[in-house]
Design goal:
CATH topology of the largest domain: Alpha-Beta Plaits
Number of strands: 9
Strand order of the largest sheet: 3-4-2-5
Number of domains: 2
Strand content: over 45%
Radius of gyration: 27 Å
CATH class of the largest domain: Alpha Beta
CATH architecture of the largest domain: 2-Layer Sandwich
CATH superfamily of the largest domain: Protein of unknown function (DUF541), domain 2
Shape: elongated
Distance between the termini: 24 Å
């Protein structure tokens, strides 16, 4: 029977790596909002407005890789009436929020402009992301694994030992850290080149960090 390897027979290290990469997609939240005298009127008006939004998103299907409804509500609009000392209802608010992922940043500005023109909606964001299939994820993990072996070999050398095979691997996880301050939508106008403002989403640098815990068998030097 083989020998059971205990923790006393191992060098356990944590390898780490950090990569910085420009975001390759962004998420935006589109909010359609209407105010009407009654709830039924608000529902009908909101349906018309969201249909216009959906039509624009359909036209930009090559740019918008995903979309989902974040929230939907029909609610009373109230304000405080000081003379009566009570809240007064002066209509109904219909609201629908859609969260979309935009992959082609070059056409994102055009999408937002068409949304404004077609539906006059509110657009919030962007929140920057790195796609799951971006090869930088794998590169960062491999770098963390190399760092783990290098650390183990350095410790072993200092102790007069040698590093053998891998006994176990644990992955705390790959973490994506957004930029400290996300850039919001900006209107940029060039007086000589553009008659109308151009919406510029800019860009952001995302930091990906990976860490891996590895137990290496200790071998006689």
């Amino acid at each position: 029977m083989g020998k059971t390897v205990g923790m006393d027979d191992l060098i356990v290290v944590r390898g780490m790596a950090v990569s910085r990469i420009s975001a390759d997609r962004a998420t935006l939240t589109i909010t359609a909002r209407v105010k009407q005298p009654t709830a039924a009127d608000a529902e009908r008006a909101l349906a018309e407005l969201t249909s216009a939004v959906d039509a624009v998103l359909d036209d930009f299907s090559a740019v918008v890789t995903s979309r989902r409804t974040e929230h939907f509500s029909i609610r009373p609009n109230t304000y405080w009436h000081a003379p009566s000392g009570a809240n007064v209802v002066d209509g109904q608010i219909g609201e629908r929020g859609i969260r979309i992922t935009v992959a082609d940043m070059g056409r994102a500005g055009a999408l937002i402009r068409v949304l404004y023109d077609a539906a006059g909606v509110e657009v919030n964001g962007p929140e920057w992301e790195v796609a799951d299939d971006n090869p930088v994820h794998g590169q960062t993990r491999r770098a963390a694994a190399r760092d783990a072996r290098q650390r183990a070999e350095q410790y072993a050398e200092g102790l007069g030992l040698s590093v053998g095979g891998v006994a176990f691997v644990r992955e705390p996880g790959l973490r994506s850290e957004p930029p400290g301050l996300a850039r919001t939508l900006a209107f940029v106008a060039d007086a000589e080149m553009e008659a109308e403002p151009v919406i510029d989403l800019g860009s952001a640098l995302i930091q990906l960090s990976a860490s891996v815990e590895v137990g290496f068998r200790i071998e006689p030097s």
